[in-house]
């Protein structure tokens, strides 16, 4: 499967950078509220005789507001799911990193003396990390579903 290995090799630095950015808090989404405010200001500045443009801009503003409301609702659900997670979020990160490193290690020269031993260790570590991550996610989902049913 050279395709998956190439994707992992190309994506590992990007994934690491994204995780680092998330940890640092530098990844921010677009300013939807600011965009809505600018669109409303533009709507007020459009002449009254441009009915079609005003109607289309109002439709776009309404869509953005609906998207903002839907995003807030989804964010609340995700926050509830994350709060119900009884494991540790690091379990999932360790699992993903172990999988990525195993894929990267597959592309290392197989003639190294320790290649096979390290590859076997990485597979075992990936399985172990996967079990811990799955256990935590399953426990979190069951707690989340219990909380939703009790409402």
Provide an overview of this structure.
Helix content is 83%, strand content 0%. It has two domains: 1-85; 87-150. The chain has 151 residues and is an all-alpha fold. It starts with a helix and ends with a helix. The protein contains five helices and no strands. The longest helix is centred in the last third of the chain and has 36 residues, at 115-150.
In one word, what is the shape? elongated
Strand percent estimate: under 5%
Q: Determine the structural class based on helices, strands and strand pairing.
A: mainly alpha
- Give the uncertain stretches in residue-range form: none
Helix and strand string, N-terminal first?
Answer: HHHHH
Query: Whole-number average pLDDT?
Result: 81
Number of domains: 2
Radius of gyration: 24 Å
Number of helices: 5
Count of DSSP strands: 0
Could you give the distance between the termini?
A: 47 Å
Bin the helical content: over 70%
| Largest β sheet strand count, sense and barrel closure | none
Looking at this protein, list some descriptive labels.
151 residues, mainly alpha, 0% strand
Task: Provide a short characterization of the protein structure.
The chain is mainly α and about 150 residues long. It has 5 helices and no strands. It folds into 2 domains: about 1-85; about 85-150.
